[in-house]
Amino acid sequence: MWMGKTALITGVTGQDGAYLSRFLLERGYRVVGGQRRSSSLNTSRLSCLGVADDIEIVDIDLVEHANVMRTIEDVQPDEIYNLAAQSFVGASYEQPVYTADVDALGVTRILEAIRVINPKIRFYQASSSEMFGPARAAVQDEQSPFQPRSPYGIAKLYAHWITLSYRETWGVHACSGILFNHESPLRGRHFVTRKITSELAMLKHGRREAMTLGNIDARRDWGFAGDYVEGMWRMLQAETAGSYVLATGQARSVREFAQVAAQHLGFDLVWQGAGLDERGVDRKTNRTLIKIDPKFYRPADTHTLVGSPARAEDELGWRRKLSFEDMVGAMAIADDKQARDFAPAF
Ligand code: NDP
Ligand code: GDR
Question: Whose CA is nearest to atom 27 of ligand 1?
């Protein structure tokens, strides 16, 4: 019989699921990863980190109440990390109902299961800086008001409040991690950071023409996913459950991200023109690398989001380790290698 701790991670096939699995395995946990059923096993990120064979996979879909209930009953976890979500803000404008079902009600399904099966299970909810919306203050912390605009941010805000409700009403050790953007070479390719590193790398190796972006003046607080999963774990080890911001405290624009990524890939990116006609050009070759396409503008976008990690640093002893420049470099190098080694089978 297993005597150590068991963690159940929903959304284990995603970016954070892979990093958290590796982190918990290194600490001696039995890790059970929840994936939603699809036609093929989607464990490529877990394989990249060398942990695919070390975790148990179970089918869990947050839209199925009975399935959530049975899985938690079977696994008997000490800790649940709820990372599962329709996580793409852009897609939430086209699929607002599905987004709410998974990202908002899905969380209630897990919390109800905890209440019924074992209220001592500790719970981590993956909340988001997107809940702040067009923020008034320069820097956001746990006291800042929420005013989300995107269906994703609104669904996540429901999940945040229901997590607090189960903490206060039913005494569940339920934590809400309000995480600002965190990236890695395992980031999904439709998020702007990975889109930039992967498409510029393909462009470098002659595998595509100029890439297109939307609002390049949007500013985000970008950290490294590997650092942030440690913060999730620290929240669940604390004596008292709470809500914590994890962030770097620094905002960079999409434009700046592209600049640093391009540099790591050997380009000298300069911007020419304005508005929809603005282009990112390689000064050395005069080749157009980036164009603007209004298709990638959002119906409502949050211009700037920066967070203060002061509380997590003081109370949890959490520190981020990787700098912005090193993280962008790691992403660019990984995509450069992938684009170079790509050999089509036919
Ligand atoms: P990903 O998009 O990489 O992963 C999301 C995971 O959720 C995937 O494993 C996905 O499965 C799974 N999933 C989607 N729908 C369901 C469903 N109905 N039932 C069960 N599983 C489902 O996200 P990240 O790893 O980047 O983020 C993890 C969590 O943190 C998410 O909740 C996200 O909203 C939140 N967050 C992320 C931030 C970031 O910057 N990365 C910042 C703040 C919050 P599949 O592989 O099948 O698609
Ligand atoms: P975000 O991340 O919406 O902050 O959500 P994303 O990388 O999608 O966008 C960041 C900013 O870049 C602008 N942008 C573009 N975005 C995309 N995806 N594609 C483009 O071509 C493009 N051009 C400009 C966007 O308008 C936006 O302002 C991420 C997700 O991980 C959420 O799950 C998480 O909760 C938040 O971060 C914090």
Answer: 16
